[in-house]
Design goal:
Tetracycline Repressor, domain 2; 13 helices; single chain; Arc Repressor Mutant, subunit A; mainly alpha; about 270 residues
């Protein structure tokens, strides 16, 4: 006697739904634990930086402060450099959020862009009281040794400035033909470089070689260190930086002399 039976055929690649749910639940739990461990390392490193006012610390100090193991640290970071980069990216994201909030409170697109530039300048300026060694001790060498990492870290800030520049351009506040992304990149780099170097005296190559003369023999003009001394004596301000940048991207006012646009915003130490 033959009995007919219905057979449920399961494709080899299919898994029971209970198994999928169990795996997903386990994966989520493991991811959460990993995120918590990473955050403890970041918090420990940030606390050490705040206490010391410098990025001069060891991985072991971070491990001890976080109360985790050295093995766990190297499961999440290649080393101190990657830890600092993570902190740097977090700091830039927080700064970007702060700038976005300030810009969003402004009445017009050009006011929003001006506010963003001025606040970026203030946040990038070396300030011993503010204790921002990630921007002063770490960021500058990183720019020379790992430019790709710098670009990735600055991407949110560049995206914000691009959005603000595009909005200002669409509102007719910028010169016709201005490319928002390129203008935003130039604005960001100009602002941050001016902020980080203003007020910091430097020595020219000639002086490093022992030449203490007043003039540069190659150009007949003052040594670079003379400019550096002037900058240290009278650092740039956020208003000056915005004035300089805005002259490059905003339309000329009616009746303005094109020859005087740039000269009007050159600091007095260059025109004296």
């Amino acid at each position: 006697m033959t009995q007919n039976m219905d057979v449920v055929v399961t494709a080899p690649g299919d898994e029971p739904s209970w198994k999928q749910r169990a795996v997903e639940r386990s994966t989520r739990a493991a991811k959460l634990r990993a995120e918590q461990r990473v955050q403890r390392f970041l918090d420990a490193a940030q606390a050490i930086i705040t206490e010391k006012g410098t990025t001069d610390f060891t991985v072991q100090e971070v491990v001890d402060r976080s109360r985790q193991s050295l093995r766990s640290f190297y499961q999440h970071f290649d080393g101190k450099h990657e830890l600092l980069l993570a902190l740097f990216e977090d700091a830039l994201r927080r700064a970007t959020a702060q700038i976005a909030a300030a810009a969003g409170a402004q009445p017009t697109p050009i006011d929003a862009l001006r506010t963003a530039v001025q606040l970026l300048f203030e946040l990038s300026r070396p300030d011993p009281a503010a204790r921002r060694p990630l921007f002063t001790d770490f960021a500058s060498p990183l720019l020379l040794t790992h430019p790709a990492e710098v670009r990735r870290a600055h991407a949110p800030l560049l995206d914000l400035l691009t959005t603000l520049t595009t909005t200002a351009s669409n509102a007719g506040h910028l010169r016709p033909g201005t490319e928002p992304r390129r203008a935003a990149a130039l604005t960001m780099e100009t602002t941050m470089f001016a902020a980080q170097t203003s007020g910091v005296p430097f020595t020219s190559t000639a002086e490093a070689d022992g030449d203490q003369g007043d003039d540069d023999p190659d150009t007949g003009g003052p040594h670079l260190s003379a400019v550096g001394t002037a900058l240290a004596a009278r650092p740039f301000s956020a208003d000056e930086v915005w004035d300089f940048i805005s002259h490059g991207i905003t339309p000329l006012r009616p009746g303005a002399d094109k020859r005087c646009v740039l000269r009007a915003c050159v600091p007095t130490y260059l025109s004296a």
